[in-house]
Amino acid sequence: TYTYETATLNAGDVELEPWTTYRAGRERYYSRFDQRLELEVGVTDHLMSAWYLNLTAVAADVEDDAGVVARERELEFAGVSSEWKLKLTDPVADPLGTALYVEGTLAPTEAAVEGKVLLDKRVGPLLLAGNLAGEYERSWEARGEIEDEIELVTLLAAAWLFDERASIGLELR
User: Fold this and answer.
1) What are the tens digits of pLDDT across the range 126-135?
2) Which of 16, 89, 106, 110 has its CA 20 to 30 A from that of 81?
3) Cα–Cα distances in Å, from 39 out to 32, 66, 124, 137?
């Protein structure tokens, strides 16, 4: 879910991918859906781009100052994103698959840029992948309050591919 592989779409290929992430729990009722609608385009056989429309829907029980608990619902435009991936070497034809990845996001209360070095290797039905990732995010929740955040992450993953539609894997972050 977090680790990217080096594969890119062929030139002229287009994919439309809806993403849904569900979150639940907390002390009181809480339900959240993060929606991303992604349009991927193969620019060349080694370069692909994607554009995302991001939405968030939250329903939560909130207590006011008088101690009254009420369920609040909110649908929020969570911004747009653009991603670019450049495949340098192929994980099947070359000793190691390598690629460079960059993604930018602009939302009503934040902006972010993320870069990754992607590594992977395909050995029969086994796919091994690793990413070195860095992200810079600036948020401005309230007027005059700016918060900057930098995150550096190493991601490792392995997946057993049963066929083109089914696999099982493990990811370490």
Assistant:
1) 999 999 999 9
2) 89
3) 23, 46, 30, 23
Pairing of strands 126-142, 145-161: antiparallel
Contacts for 91 with CB less than 8 Å, ≥ 6 apart: 5, 6, 7, 97, 120, 121, 122, 127
Looking up tokens 């993953």, which residue turns up?
157
Dist CA 161 CA 123 (whole Å): 10
pTM over 0.70: yes
Do residues 138 and 146 make contact, with C-beta atoms less than 8 angstroms apart? Answer: yes
Give residue-wise pLDDT tens across range 26-43. Answer: 888 999 999 999 999 999
